[in-house]
Amino acid sequence: MFIPLASNQIALVAVAGGMISALLNTGIEDLLNTLIVNKTLIIGEMLLKCLIASFTVGLVLSIIYYAFVVYGFSESSMSSIQIIVLFTFYFGIANPLLGVALKLLYSKLLAKNDV
What we know:
Layout: H1 7-37, H2 43-72, H3 80-109
């Protein structure tokens, strides 16, 4: 039997998803940029950036997630949690990986050839 989630439960899942996606986005992008450029990894600075992003961008993303789930996808065949998990996966993992891949591709294609 399908029991729809209450609005406050959707809000809690949206806040968690927004904060997790902002945390993953910042963490993955910083880690990959550090590994590509061969700089030293400063854990404290990376954790501080992730924490700040989680509480600022994450809360904004959670409002967007909540609005999409409640108003945009209200009659969807997927549940609210599935939609938020998909948003979290895309913005948290796929987005920084695609961004770094495009940066690498751009730098390889337009690299100056020194003779």
